[in-house]
Amino acid sequence: MILRNKMFLSLMISILILISSISVVCAAMEVEGGAFYTDGDLDDLTYASIYVGSEYSGDDVTVQIFYSRDGSDLNDGNMVPKTVNANGYINIKSADSYKYFPDHAEIKIYDSNNKLLDSQEIILSPTEGLQIFGTGDYDHTYIKDAKISSASTYYDGTDLSGGSGESVEITSIDEDSGVIEGYKGGRKGVWTPSGNFIEEGRGY
Questions:
Q1: Which is deepest, 59, 97, 148, 197, by most CB within 10 Å?
Q2: What single-letter DSSP state applies at residue 177?
């Protein structure tokens, strides 16, 4: 009887250890989705917003993103320390601009002990603008700020200078209506969703 009880106890302990191990594996941080954004000029950086889940808010991680085009590396994949924000996003921009738009990205996320948590490869279209992957969740504020801070005259593939080469400064974007406020050649106004600039005092 005592031997049977010991075997039963040993079996229960083994089952509990197994369940705990499975729970730890299931709880590991994973890349669920996100977005990449690159503007239209060769001197523009590439921005990535990676969604891992709000349950990891405040976690310190290290992120590597390897970009390539036609099988040739565009960067060295610097290891960048980041903190998951309150909404579960890791936001990171490239250290340099690239000669070509990337058509492939590999994301690697490590914990604070440099243990690999997840790795995911993303196929990109080698064009400018916003590209969403996975669940489609990304930090809209971060990407929006990336668009505004870009030195390019392009926004989502539209040349806001109208081909004139005039300077463009975006001050705000209404993503619901598509209206963009800012300055073109020093003149204040708005761009309509079709890309037409209307100077202040002339119809808006």
A1: 197
A2: T
Strands (E), the chain: 33-38, 46-51, 60-69, 72-73, 80-83, 89-93, 104-110, 116-123, 129-134, 154-155, 158-159, 168-174, 179-184, 187-191, 197-199
Q: Which two tokens stand for residue 184?
A: 């073109």
* Average confidence (pLDDT) over 110-135: 92
What are the Cα distances from residue 174, in Å, to 51, 141, 148, 160, 179?
23, 12, 12, 15, 5
Q: Which residues of 4-24 are buried (b: 16+ CB within 10 A; e: fewer)?
A: eeeeeeeeeeeeeeeeeeeee
Identify residue 168 by its one-letter amino acid code.
V
* pTM of this structure: 0.67
